[in-house]
Automatic annotation (TrEMBL):
<keyword id="KW-0313">Glucose metabolism</keyword>
<comment type="function">
    <text>Catalyzes the oxidation of glucose 6-phosphate to 6-phosphogluconolactone.</text>
</comment>
<feature type="domain" description="Glucose-6-phosphate dehydrogenase C-terminal">
    <location>
        <begin position="177"/>
        <end position="467"/>
    </location>
</feature>
<dbReference type="InterPro" id="IPR022674">
    <property type="entry name" value="G6P_DH_NAD-bd"/>
</dbReference>
<dbReference type="InterPro" id="IPR001282">
    <property type="entry name" value="G6P_DH"/>
</dbReference>
<dbReference type="InterPro" id="IPR036291">
    <property type="entry name" value="NAD(P)-bd_dom_sf"/>
</dbReference>
<feature type="binding site">
    <location>
        <position position="327"/>
    </location>
    <ligand>
        <name>substrate</name>
    </ligand>
</feature>
<dbReference type="Pfam" id="PF02781">
    <property type="entry name" value="G6PD_C"/>
</dbReference>
<feature type="binding site">
    <location>
        <position position="170"/>
    </location>
    <ligand>
        <name>substrate</name>
    </ligand>
</feature>
<feature type="active site" description="Proton acceptor">
    <location>
        <position position="228"/>
    </location>
</feature>
<keyword id="KW-0560">Oxidoreductase</keyword>
<feature type="binding site">
    <location>
        <position position="136"/>
    </location>
    <ligand>
        <name>NADP(+)</name>
    </ligand>
</feature>
<comment type="pathway">
    <text>Carbohydrate degradation; pentose phosphate pathway; D-ribulose 5-phosphate from D-glucose 6-phosphate (oxidative stage): step 1/3.</text>
</comment>
<feature type="domain" description="Glucose-6-phosphate dehydrogenase NAD-binding">
    <location>
        <begin position="7"/>
        <end position="175"/>
    </location>
</feature>
<feature type="binding site">
    <location>
        <position position="166"/>
    </location>
    <ligand>
        <name>substrate</name>
    </ligand>
</feature>
<protein>
    <recommendedName>
        <fullName>Glucose-6-phosphate 1-dehydrogenase</fullName>
        <ecNumber>1.1.1.49</ecNumber>
    </recommendedName>
</protein>
<feature type="binding site">
    <location>
        <position position="223"/>
    </location>
    <ligand>
        <name>substrate</name>
    </ligand>
</feature>
Amino acid sequence: MHDTLLLFGATGDLAARQLFPSLLHLLRDRLLPEDFRIVAVARHAYDDEAFRAWLGERLAGIENGAEVRAELLRRTEYVAVDLSQPEAIAQTLRGYADGHRCVSYLATPPYLFVPIAQGLKGAGLLEEPSRLVLEKPIGSDLESARAINAALGACLGEDRIFRIDHYLGKAAVQNLLALRFGNTLLEAVWHHRWIESVDILVAETAGVDGRESYYADYGALRDMVQNHVLQLLCLIAMEPPASLDAAVLRDEKLKVLRALRPFRADSVLADSVRGRYEAGLVDGEPVRGFSLQAVQGREPVETFVALRASIDNWRWAGVPFRLCTGKRLAERVTQVVVTFRPTSHWLFEKPRRERATPNRLVLRLQPQENVELELMSSLAGPEWGALELQALPLDLSMPTVQRRIAYERLLLDALNGNSTLFVRSDEVEAAWTWIDSIIAAWREAETPILPYMAGSWGPAAAANFLPQAPARTLGAQRDRRVP
Ligand SMILES: NC(=O)C1=CN([C@@H]2O[C@H](COP(=O)(O)OP(=O)(O)OC[C@H]3O[C@@H](n4cnc5c(N)ncnc54)[C@H](OP(=O)(O)O)[C@@H]3O)[C@@H](O)[C@H]2O)C=CC1
Ligand SMILES: O=C1O[C@H](COP(=O)(O)O)[C@@H](O)[C@H](O)[C@H]1O
């Protein structure tokens, strides 16, 4: 296992909220090497002690022994450098690799990825066996993603580049693989002959607050669908890989991404809905609408998107994949719902046929993790009469295991060199190819961005994309164009 983590963007939100707490847990559980050390890098002019004081405060609220926290701080040193300057990085960090096996983690805005990689190369920090970990997003379209991938490829080999999609680090997401490929019952029915539709919903109650500037360039489609939602779709739709080897698994995901049907201007209005939240109530608290000030002068972005995607291959012909994600929605929930086709022949009371609920497999990934299979069952009482059927959920919840932050697993895998749960360059580019087709179709069709009230389930026009959302919150507002 590598012994040195160079954490770029160490004073940022992600580092403070996710990365350092993850490292603290790994240290607590003695999962890091004995000689593990962290080199925290950012722009702010801290020295080691000032940075440790800053970090100590941020970690104080975490339920961990003060001893582990003190140990983490002891193992952390701080380096200040302007990360847009490759020469300055090379000069400042030269010598850090001597006698160490280093992983550089770039938790910085993406425009710094290339100068940092060039600086690291100049410092000798990308020589074998060093590794590079990158946060999302990789670019903002196919062209920029290609440029980043090519520039990184000139600095080190693809096998040593680890692109993070933190959804792949979530235990519940990995469980999708276990469910799909560990169960004969599901293997047999996992294709268009038996599956009618698939719904992937990633709903957040959080807003954009504090990240307007980033978000104004991205919107929900680029921020969430290009990566997390498409990774979920890949795990649900890919062909069974021959093994869990990184190359094999990623080859299968890539085939799905390449089989996604591009969007077209003449159908995009029927196949997508864009929305942007306005002031409302979330969890009983009043919240502001998305600030239009931040996006002035730029192309308008959505905070909600619903898409009807099609995968043009043998397995999924004719099966709609409804993808939906948004901020400031009624509930925080990430789930995949697989709806099966009706039974071939209905034996029971004829009029009840319409009321028969299809079998559904509901995979809830967060905040609670559970798996539910909705089956029809008879409610026949002691008196002999017509069989009355009702859909009954069969709760297949897993035993509670220790919950870990997704980044714990990913940090450990990067230190160990296991890239199975990281995204390859060609996957990123295939995902952008599809996303770019949607953006081009939106532009050409002048797709409106519809307002929705914070705390609702998005624009009323999205009702058909959200069959699992409570009907009462849908359609509560009339759609109109955002000015
Ligand atoms: N925050 C989150 O929840 C998530 C973030 N991400 C991604 O992670 C990355 C980091 O996000 P986040 O932590 O929110 O960003 P922040 O803006 O909070 O932090 C940015 C970090 O980069 C450093 N930095 C910026 N410019 C320079 C520079 N020129 N020289 C040196 N250091 C610099 C900042 O240092 P300083 O403070 O010293 O200026 C800071 O440490 C982004 O790519 C983001 O998209 C991905 C998923 C979720
Ligand atoms: O990458 C991102 O993910 C978060 C949602 O992550 P979750 O683990 O809380 O589901 C999202 O809020 C953010 O906008 C996006 O950049």
